[in-house]
Amino acid sequence: MTQTPPVTRQDFDAVMAPNYNPAAVIPVRGKGSRVWDQDNNEYIDLAGGIAVSALGHCHPAMVDALQAQSEQLWHLSNVMTNEPAIRLAQKLVASTFADRVYFCNSGAEANEAAFKLARRYANDHFGADKHEIISFKQAFHGRTLFTVSVGGQPKYTEGFGPVPGGLHHVPFNDLGALKAAISDRTCAVVMEPMQGEGGIVPATAEFIQGVRALCDAHNALLIFDEVQTGMGRTGHLYAYQAFGVAPDILTSAKGLGGGFPIGAMLATEQVAASLVVGTHGSTYGGNPLACAVAEAVIDQVNTPTLLAGVMTRNQKMRDALEALAAETGAFREIRGMGLLLGAEVSEAYAGQARAFLTAALEAGVMVLVAGPNVVRFAPALNIPEADLDQAMERFAVAVRKVVGQSTAAA
């Protein structure tokens, strides 16, 4: 039997497109909230694959679901349906505002479907002139040309023009700006209940309620992008449930599959009716393997015990980060919801969030950034509290190192 030759980080640079610059370490194994690299170094995972690994690594329920489904049926075209897709859709409908579900492979695809549906619905009911979409500055909705254009970060569209038209961006949490921009030509307003890539910035309840009212006044659909905030991340199955405001369309991915690629667009029956046969599709959307795993995830996540545990862990993390901020002066604000938290660096460390990420990895803990000024945390929703305590201790070591280096340099 021929042995597979070992691969290195240098091999990545030789064969992969240069759009990523991954860390030097290559993880090879994960269990729960811990990951080991090629050299068997251990890390506690507070990154969660960017809020994807909702149940950590290799959760038994997910492994069992994948193994069982892998021995039954892997793929069908959408000329036919399958049992896991129907069961998952039933559970999403039963647990949310939605009446209908469309499956795809990622958050970007879910948002692409949502934006297309919004325009199609407006065209069906009000005519072609009602096609404009409003989103918010510093938003992030995916990397397709349409979704990255709807997102409010120009750096992601630079060099890819001309971008789709009919798109407008206003400041987040600024109801007056939205009121000035919205019109009867607006077909949809799309927003994250909490901006993720934009710096872990929650919407205020007043803002979300005001957005809903403005959409209603102008016959515009309200789309919630819950790719990052969904599937228990905020302590609710979906974040909108914390605000008492339901959207017309919601997009979900990331944690929905717990690490297996899947996306979903949820909609009311009235709106979904415009997605008639032939208007949209996905080769792998509703794949039996993906849907079987996602069904296992929702069964684990959508329980009072797990969702309450998210809030307990939220407080534990907040307390640790606020104490660290007071001790070191490294952070000016700790914010977020549930287990999607951000630590905004203080003025002395402006633009240096990645320095804390690098030091954290050296200390044995995986974290994220959300732009140049925010360290982001998105651990497994079920991370053992002892692991969380140890992870915060390791992060404190990393922060003290960065602060000490800065002090020494001064």
From TrEMBL:
Primary enzyme class: transferase
Cofactor: pyridoxal 5'-phosphate
InterPro entries named among the record's database cross-references: Ac/SucOrn_transaminase_bac, AcOrn/SuccOrn_fam, Aminotrans_3, Aminotrans_3_PPA_site, Class-III_PLP-dep_AT, PyrdxlP-dep_Trfase, PyrdxlP-dep_Trfase_major, PyrdxlP-dep_Trfase_small
Cofactor note text: Binds 1 pyridoxal phosphate per subunit.
CC terms in the record's Gene Ontology section: cytoplasm
Subcellular location: Cytoplasm
Binding residue positions for pyridoxal 5'-phosphate: G107, A108, F140, D225, E226, V227, Q228, T283
Pathway the protein acts in: Amino-acid biosynthesis; L-arginine biosynthesis; N(2)-acetyl-L-ornithine from L-glutamate: step 4/4
EC nos: 2.6.1.11
Broad class of where this protein is predominantly found: cytoplasm
Binding site for N(2)-acetyl-L-ornithine: R143, S282
Keywords, ordered alphabetically: Amino-acid biosynthesis, Aminotransferase, Arginine biosynthesis, Cytoplasm, Pyridoxal phosphate, Transferase
Catalytic activity line of the entry: N(2)-acetyl-L-ornithine + 2-oxoglutarate = N-acetyl-L-glutamate 5-semialdehyde + L-glutamate
Gene Ontology terms, MF aspect: identical protein binding; N2-acetyl-L-ornithine:2-oxoglutarate 5-aminotransferase activity; pyridoxal phosphate binding
Family: Belongs to the class-III pyridoxal-phosphate-dependent aminotransferase family. ArgD subfamily.
Leftover remarks: May also have succinyldiaminopimelate aminotransferase activity, thus carrying out the corresponding step in lysine biosynthesis.
Protein's name in the database: Acetylornithine aminotransferase
Lineage: Bacteria, Pseudomonadati, Pseudomonadota, Gammaproteobacteria, Chromatiales
